[in-house]
């Protein structure tokens, strides 16, 4: 079978051309065209193609460099202008610079020059937690206070565990009762297992039940170097932030019904660390792991376990621990360029606590950080 026309032509094109003649019946040797002459004949076309290719590459590179120069100019202009804080919520929130009045530890909310916003006036309850009872540690101020108020707005009675900030705790009690729900104040130290058991018993005695446990109490203290962290500080941080969570869960578990939930307050420092909060970051990372492990452990009992990982939030914890210069710019390094107010965090706790909203969610760490992405 003869080869296809194209293949035949291709094959023939590789055969040197020759001319032969017969003179007086004798054949004359064929003469093959030298390879150099063939190459010479092809050179102009090749040069034209190469020139066109180089021109195309040069043109593309020129366009890319122009785009790059334009973007560099835009970046320079953007860098010269101060970054404006982002306001994307229901109402405008305070921005940096923030008041830098130093507070004595653990910090009273009523002593702050700029009090944290906790009441979320634009948040309307819809009975998501109707008939339930919740216990919130560290509920006297900050995130805990806002969680307690929004839980009450959703129909739950709330027990508040706090250390010794009695004035702040009374303010929270009045705010919860203003929502039409009952509130019990339970002062004490979550580092002590016996107190945790008493706190749960008082809650159950007051409300007849316990449906939601919110582990929120925490201790932090900045240190420039790991060698600056004393054994006393390390013990305080670990026992408050880790042992306290374990103790409260152990005490609450016998009373939590199927459909109940446990919420732990983690932190962005547990996601990416903080060079001046080494021990605190370690405990928050432990809380995230504890949340996931406990969720698996309690799943057969129908009890959900989740965590919220806040970014910078304006609470008494910060002016009581940070240097005044750091307090003024607190939260400025987030993508939104400002710290959150507690009322911007509390709806996440409502969502995770409500069976109607998060009945199919367990073992997650929900970042609420004011920045793009989880980490």
Verbal overview:
The protein starts with a helix and ends in a 7-residue tail after the last strand. The chain is an alpha/beta fold and 375 residues long. It has helices at residues 5-13, 35-80, 142-153, 166-178, 193-207, 231-252, 269-272, 278-298, 324-328, 342-353, 355-358, and strands spanning 18-19, 22-23, 26-27, 31-32, 133-137, 157-162, 183-187, 212-215, 261-265, 304-310, 365-368. Strands 7-6-5-8-9-10-11 form a seven-stranded parallel sheet, with helices on both faces. A two-stranded antiparallel ribbon has the order 1-4. Helix 3 (142-153) links the parallel strand 5 and strand 6 (157-162). The protein has a domain at 130-368: Rossmann fold, CATH 3.40.50. The longest helix has 46 residues, at 35-80. The radius of gyration is 36 Å and the shape is elongated. The chain has eleven helices and eleven strands. It is 43% helix and 12% strand.
């Amino acid at each position: 079978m003869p080869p296809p026309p194209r293949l035949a032509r291709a094959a023939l094109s590789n055969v040197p051309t020759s001319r032969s003649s017969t003179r007086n019946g004798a054949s004359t040797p064929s003469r093959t065209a030298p390879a150099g002459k063939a190459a010479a004949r092809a050179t102009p076309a090749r040069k034209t193609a190469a020139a066109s290719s180089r021109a195309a590459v040069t043109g593309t590179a020129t366009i890319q460099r122009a785009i790059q120069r334009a973007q560099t100019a835009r970046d320079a202009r953007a860098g010269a202008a101060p970054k404006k804080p982002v306001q994307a919520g229901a109402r405008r929130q305070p921005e940096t610079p923030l008041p830098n009045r130093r507070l004595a530890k653990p910090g009273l909310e009523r002593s702050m020059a700029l009090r944290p916003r906790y009441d979320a006036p634009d948040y309307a309850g819809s009975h998501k937690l109707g008939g339930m009872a919740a216990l919130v540690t560290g509920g006297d101020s900050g995130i805990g206070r806002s969680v307690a108020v929004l839980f009450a707005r959703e129909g739950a009675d709330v027990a508040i565990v706090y250390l010794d900030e009695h004035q702040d705790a009374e303010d929270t009690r009045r705010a919860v009762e203003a929502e039409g729900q009952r509130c019990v104040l339970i002062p004490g130290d979550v580092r002590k297992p016996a107190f945790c058991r008493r706190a749960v018993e008082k809650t159950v005695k007051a409300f007849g039940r316990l449906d939601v446990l919110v582990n929120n109490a925490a201790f932090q203290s900045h240190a420039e170097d790991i060698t600056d962290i004393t054994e006393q500080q390390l013990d305080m941080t670990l026992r408050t932030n880790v042992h306290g969570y374990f103790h409260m869960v152990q005490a609450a578990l016998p009373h939590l019904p199927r459909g109940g939930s446990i919420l732990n307050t983690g932190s962005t420092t547990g996601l990416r660390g903080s060079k001046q909060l080494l021990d605190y970051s370690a405990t928050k990372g432990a809380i995230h792991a504890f949340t996931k492990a406990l969720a698996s452990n309690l799943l057969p009992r129908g009890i959900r376990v989740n965590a919220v990982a806040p970014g910078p939030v304006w609470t008494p914890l910060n002016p009581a621990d940070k240097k005044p210069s750091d307090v003024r710019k607190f939260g400025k390094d987030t993508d939104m360029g400002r710290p959150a107010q507690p009322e911007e965090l509390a709806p996440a706790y409502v969502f995770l606590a409500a069976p109607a909203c998060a009945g199919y969610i367990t073992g997650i760490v929900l970042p609420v950080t004011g920045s793009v992405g989880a980490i």
